[in-house]
Write a structure and sequence with these properties.
The chain has eleven helices and eight strands. Bound molecules: 2-phosphoglycolic acid (PGA).
Length: 255
C-alpha cells in the first residue's frame, strides 16, 4: 500500500515572517493527521529557518531545485550534499517552470535525479505536457519521453522510493485542474510505462498530481487509485487550504 504524499511548492514566495507564521499554522492544523506524508519546499534562502521551525513535527523539508555538481566553481548553485546537510528530504526537479525559464533538458534533469539518489535524497520528478501537446494528443508521448530520460540512463530500480509529479502545464496556476478521470488516466499510463521495466518498482512509486489543486477539488482527485497525493503551489501558501488537502489525502487513502 502506497502512503500518500502532499507537498507544498512555495515557488518564489516567502519571507522570514511568512516561514514563522505559515509553519506555526500548519503544525497546529496538522498535529493530529496520520496517514499522509507532508512536506513543504520553501525558497532555498529559508530552508534552514524552516527546518528549525519544523523541528519535532511530522512535516518534512523539501527544496525546489538542485545542481548536478557537488562543489566547485558553479556560482549561484546549491548541491545535493548541502540540501542533505540542512535536513531537506524531498527535492523537486524538472518543474515545468525550470524546464521553460531555465531551458532544463530531460538529460540534465536525469542527471539531477542521479545526484539526488546518490546523496540519499528523494527526487520529486515533475513531468507533464503543455496545452498544445495536450490538444495534439501527445500527452502520453511527452510523459513517456520525460520518464525515459531517467529509465534509460539509470534503469527502473532508480525509481525505488521516489516521487513523480504529473503536472500538466496547462493546469499549473491557472485554476483549471485536470479532472480526476483525466489525471487518473495519465497516472495509470505512467505506472504502466514503468511496469514494463519493473512491476514491483512501478507499484511502489508515488505519483502525485499537480496543477491547481485546492481545498475544493482535492478530495475527488484522491479517490482515484493511481493518484498518490499532490504537489501544491498556490494553495500551499494558505495553511487552512493546505491542511484541507492533506486531510483529504489521509482520508481517501486510509486502510
Ligand atoms: P499550482 O502549482 O498548485 O499553483 O497550480 C503547482 C505546481 O506548479 O507545483
Amino acid at each position: 500500500m502506497r502512503h500518500p504524499l502532499v507537498m507544498g511548492n512555495w515557488k518564489l514566495n516567502g519571507s522570514k515572517h511568512m516561514v514563522n507564521d505559515l509553519i506555526a499554522a500548519l503544525r497546529n492544523e496538522l498535529s493530529s493527521v496520520v496517514g499522509c506524508d507532508v512536506a513543504i519546499a520553501p525558497p532555498v534562502t529559508y530552508l534552514d529557518l524552516a527546518k528549525h521551525h519544523l523541528g519535532g513535527s511530522r512535516i518534512a523539508l523539501g527544496a525546489q531545485n538542485v545542481d548536478t555538481h557537488l562543489s566547485g566553481a558553479y556560482t549561484g548553485e546549491v548541491s545535493a550534499e548541502m540540501l542533505k546537510d540542512i535536513g531537506a528530504k524531498y527535492i523537486i526537479i524538472g518543474h515545468s517552470e525550470r524546464r521553460t525559464y531555465h531551458k532544463e533538458s530531460d538529460a540534465l534533469i536525469a542527471e539531477k535525479f542521479a545526484i539526488l539518489k546518490e546523496a540519499g535524497l528523494i527526487p520529486v520528478l515533475c513531468i507533464g505536457e503543455s496545452e498544445a501537446e495536450n490538444e495534439a494528443g501527445q500527452t502520453e508521448a511527452v510523459c513517456a519521453r520525460q520518464i525515459d530520460a531517467v529509465l534509460n540512463s539509470l534503469g527502473a530500480k532508480a525509481f525505488e522510493n521516489t516521487v513523480i509529479a504529473y503536472e500538466p502545464i496547462w493546469a499549473i496556476g491557472t485554476g483549471k485542474s485536470a479532472t480526476p478521470a483525466q489525471a487518473q488516466a495519465v497516472h495509470k499510463f505512467i505506472r504502466d510505462h514503468i511496469a514494463k521495466h519493473d512491476a514491483a518498482i512501478a507499484e511502489q512509486v508515488i505519483i502525485q498530481y499537480g496543477g491547481s489543486v485546492n481545498a475544493a477539488n482535492a478530495a475527488e482527485l484522491f479517490t482515484q487509485p493511481d493518484i498518490d497525493g499532490a504537489l501544491v503551489g498556490g494553495a500551499s501558501l494558505k495553511a487552512d487550504a493546505f491542511a484541507v488537502i492533506v486531510k483529504a489525502a489521509a482520508e481517501a487513502k486510509q486502510g
